[in-house]
Every structure is written in structure tokens, then in C-alpha cells.
TrEMBL record:
Pfam families with a match to the protein in the record: TPP_enzyme_N
Signal peptide: none
Source organism phylogeny: Bacteria, Bacillati, Actinomycetota, Actinomycetes, Micrococcales
Gene3D superfamilies given in the database record: 3.40.50.970, TPP-binding domain
InterPro entries: THDP-binding (IPR029061), Thiamin_PyroP_enz_TPP-bd_dom (IPR012001)
GO molecular function, one term: magnesium ion binding
Annotated ranges, domain Thiamine pyrophosphate enzyme N-terminal TPP-binding: 11-91
Domain of life: Bacteria
Protein name per Swiss-Prot or TrEMBL: 2-succinyl-5-enolpyruvyl-6-hydroxy-3-cyclohexene-1-carboxylate synthase
Length: 329
């Protein structure tokens, strides 16, 4: 494919006429890769209708054995469901039990749609691999399509990393084996290496949302970063807290200068904060200790971790010159 990104990894394609055969082939390939120390999900692609149901025996095996599969099933657009249209059935929930079911609507070409699909891809791959739960398994991605099924002379979206979140495995920020995921743009945490970001001069803020706890204040003070804390964060106070941050974020010389955000808790109260987290020129590390999902309403997080990197907690005890100047603004 001449339009394929030359940096993209190669795809090994296997064609099977029978969906049951395809499901068990994928199961065997994924299990073999895991036993060989290279755990990765294997994708199975089917058409709609009864083709989907034929995957169920392999899905049950994958569920009980903890084998990562990506079940990519085509579907009719939502307006044709329940109308008696050809090759249409209720596909959402048909392959349970799985680790996650996502019903993706037919694309419309709206702005940001390609970013949202990249974010979805990062989420489903991380879930299949058990990155946050240590519980790998099958994931069902039901993909609706509306005619024309391919762009009618219009260009495909340009290759980009916008929306591709790197989901770090549990414990990765403390070091360990390298991640098999593609590296994020300017990662704050490099897998198997100490966290960067301590006094590197990048204008950084700590966002403490609901339930963040005192650890957010510790990160801000250890590194000399401003703390933007919501009232219910449990972190509001201290020398780095910025009381009127919602107004300051609108100032080009202050909010406009932010280039990195460390997010703890659930930011809920401030639209300026959500706008900051969604900016293309801002990298963000989201710390979400529990659950398979994480808080990222703008779908723009650079990295997601289950714990604060120890290097960010340790800091150096005092801010560098760049951090002192940044905090003094």
C-alpha cells in the first residue's frame, strides 16, 4: 500500500473463509506470542451478522485463558439497525464475556474524528494487553460503516500521533522491562528509565482534580511547579498553589506558556483546564491508580500511569532557576 506510513510496523495477514477457523487461528497466534515472551494482541476482522457469532467459541477460550484478542467486527450504521436490513443483527454484547466492548459509530468526517479513533485504538490495545489491570483478554470493537465504504476521491487523514496515548503497564514508572508500545511524543516517563521532567526547564503545571490527595501537592513542591487544585482535590494549599488559576490560564503569557501537565484526580470544575489538556502543544501525564479506564475528556493525554513516578516525588528539594522563574510568574 503506497499510502501506508513507512514507519508503521508490518502487518502479517492471514485470510480464512470460515470465521470460526479465523478466531482459533488468532487465539493460537496470540497465545504463542505470549509464551514466547512477546505478548501482543492479534486482530480478527469479520463482516456483520452471523459472521460475528461464529467468533464466540474462540472468544470464550481467550476470556478464560487471558489471551489478548482484538475482535474487529463490521456493522451496519445505526439508522439501519432494527429495520430488517440485510446482514444485520444485534452485535453489541454478542461476544460477551470480553474485557471491553466498544460500539463505534459510522464516521462522518467531523473535525477531530481521526484523533478520537487513534485514542480509541490506544485504549482497546491497552485493555487487551491488561496494561492497567494485569488481566489481558479479548476486546470487541464493533465498527459501523455507511456507504460509500471508502473515501470517494477524498484524501485519508494524514498520519499523526494526536490522540495516541501511551498506556504504561502497572509499575513501569519504577523501571523494569521496556514497553513494547510505540513511544509517545516527548514522553515524561521512558519505560525502564528514570522519569525526566525534574528541573528540565519545560513550563509545567500540576492539575489536582477531585480526589487527587496530598500527593499532588508533593509533586508540585518537589519540582517547583505551580499547583492548580480544585476545592475537592485534597491538595489545595501550600506555597505552590495558584488560587486564581482559571483566570490565569486565559492569559497568553501564563496559561499559553504551559507545555506540560501532570494530572492527578478527576478534573471536573474548570473549562479552561479542559482546554489546556486538549491543546496540541501540551504533553500530559495522567496518573490514574485504579480501573481499566482513565480520566481524559479531551482524548489528548500523552501518557497514562497507575502511579506517580518516584523521580517526580523525590525532586531535588529545591526548584531550579527555570522553575523558580516559571513559578514566580
Amino acid at each position: 500500500d503506497a499510502g501506508r506510513d513507512p514507519a508503521a510496523p508490518p502487518l502479517e495477514l492471514h485470510v480464512r473463509i470460515d470465521e470460526r477457523d479465523a478466531g482459533f487461528l488468532a487465539l493460537g497466534m496470540a497465545r504463542g506470542a505470549a509464551l514466547g515472551g512477546d505478548a501482543r494482541p492479534v486482530a480478527v476482522v469479520t463482516t456483520s451478522g452471523t459472521a460475528v457469532a461464529n467468533l464466540h467459541p474462540a472468544v470464550l477460550e481467550a476470556h478464560h485463558a487471558g489471551v489478548p484478542l482484538l475482535l474487529l467486527t463490521a456493522d451496519r450504521p445505526h439508522e439501519l439497525r432494527g429495520t430488517g436490513a440485510n446482514q444485520t443483527t444485534e452485535q453489541v454484547g454478542l461476544l460477551e464475556p470480553v474485557r471491553l466492548t466498544v460500539d463505534v459509530p459510522a464516521p462522518t468526517g467531523r473535525p477531530g474524528e481521526d484523533r478520537d479513533l487513534r485514542h480509541l485504538a490506544a485504549r482497546v490495545v491497552a485493555t487487551a494487553l491488561g496494561r492497567r489491570t494485569d488481566d489481558p483478554g479479548p476486546v470487541h470493537v464493533n465498527l459501523a460503516y455507511r456507504e460509500p465504504l471508502v473515501p470517494a476521491g477524498e484524501p485519508w487523514p494524514r498520519p499523526a500521533r494526536d490522540g495516541l496515548t501511551e498506556v504504561l503497564r502497572r509499575g513501569a514508572t519504577a523501571g523494569g522491562p521496556p514497553s513494547v508500545d510505540a513511544p509517545a511524543v516527548a514522553p515524561l516517563v521512558a519505560s525502564g528509565a528514570p522519569a525526566r521532567g525534574v528541573h528540565d526547564g519545560v513550563p509545567t503545571v500540576v492539575v489536582a482534580g477531585d480526589g487527587a490527595g496530598p500527593v499532588a501537592r508533593r509533586v508540585a513542591e518537589a519540582n517547583g511547579w505551580p499547583l492548580l487544585a480544585e476545592p475537592s482535590s485534597g491538595a489545595r494549599g501550600g506555597p505552590n498553589a495558584v488560587p486564581g488559576y482559571r483566570l490565569l490560564l486565559a492569559e497568553e503569557g501564563l496559561g499559553g506558556a504551559v507545555r506540560r501537565v501532570v494530572v492527578l484526580g478527576r478534573p471536573t470544575l474548570s473549562r479552561p483546564v479542559q482546554a489546556l489538556l486538549g491543546r496540541a502543544d501540551v504533553e500530559s501525564l495522567v496518573v490514574a491508580p485504579t480501573g481499566a479506564d482513565w480520566v481524559d475528556a479531551p482524548r489528548a493525554a500523552t501518557q497514562v500511569a497507575t502511579e506517580v513516578p518516584p523521580a517526580l516525588l523525590a525532586g531535588t528539594g529545591s526548584a531550579g532557576r527555570a522553575e523558580e522563574a516559571w513559578l514566580a510568574r
